[in-house]
Amino acid sequence: MSRLDSFIRRMQAQRDCLNAAVQMLADIPGPVLDLGLGNGRTFDHLRETMQDREIFVFDRVVNSNPKSTPDPDHVFLGEADAQLAVAAARFGKSVALIHSDLGTGTSADADLAAAIVPLLVPLLRPGGILVANNRFPADAWDELPLPDGVPAERYFMYRVPV
Ligand SMILES: C[S@@+](CC[C@H](N)C(=O)[O-])C[C@H]1O[C@@H](n2cnc3c(N)ncnc32)[C@H](O)[C@@H]1O
Questions:
Q1: Which tens digit of pLDDT belongs to each residue from 29-81?
Q2: Is the pLDDT at 104 greater than 90, yes or no?
Q3: Which of 57, 89, 93, 153 holds its CA 20 to 30 A away from the CA of 81?
Q4: Nearest CA to ligand 1 atom 13
Q5: Model confidence over 4-13: pLDDT tens digits?
Q6: Is the CB of 80 under 6 A from ligand 1?
Q7: What is the domain count for the chain?
Q8: Distance between Cα 13 and ligand 1 center (Å)
């Protein structure tokens, strides 16, 4: 498989998992956190598919396409760990969906996930969902089956037990 094939499949998996989470959360209120604004593609997809939600993004810098750049009131700017603590103080356990797209595709991703997961626990409400581009050591949460067509280990979904 070429790197282009691999990239396309990862993006398809990302979109399919986000769409599945959106459906599962239809009756679960709460804001959405998109960790890793980047170009703003997933932020844009989330605001298209969850039009009635507040969506907050996290990144070290805002370098997104102007067409998919949130207003400054919806940006947590800085290192994700420090900013997640700020978000927890603000939102408490009210968040419906967290999408983590922070990884770099290297062995450092596992360390990042391990460092971040304790910061997500105080944020995600019961029934809330984490969609992630790498595995999280989320032992207290249920790992969800992936949507049809998404290969194992390509993307990850977890739900907080109700
Ligand atoms: C793969 S890109 C996100 C792509 C984005 N979701 C999109 O659809 O365009 C990852 C982003 O995460 C940010 N990032 C990575 N590690 C971070 C950290 N520890 N704290 C804050 N931002 C981080 C990077 O600056 C980068 O913009």
A1: 999 999 999 999 999 999 999 999 999 999 999 999 999 999 999 999 999 99
A2: no
A3: 153
A4: 36
A5: 999 999 999 9
A6: yes
A7: 1
A8: 18
CATH at 130: 3.40.50.150
Q: Which of 123, 125, 76, 132 is nearest to 100 (CA)?
A: 132
Range of the domain at 83: 3-159
The pTM of this model reads 0.97
The pair of structure tokens assigned to 60 is: 């070290």
Does residue 127's CB lie within 6 angstroms of at least one atom of ligand 1? no
Where b means 16+ CB within 10 Å and e means fewer, 124-153 reads: bbebbbbbbbbbbebeebeebebbeebeee
Does the pLDDT value for residue 141 go beyond 80? yes
Which is more confidently placed, 110 or 91? 91
Provide φ and ψ at 29, rounded to 5°: -75, 170
Cβ-contact 159, 144 below 8 angstroms: yes
Phi, psi (degrees; rounded to nearest 5) at 131: -110, 130
Residue 104 CA to ligand 1 centre (angstroms): 8
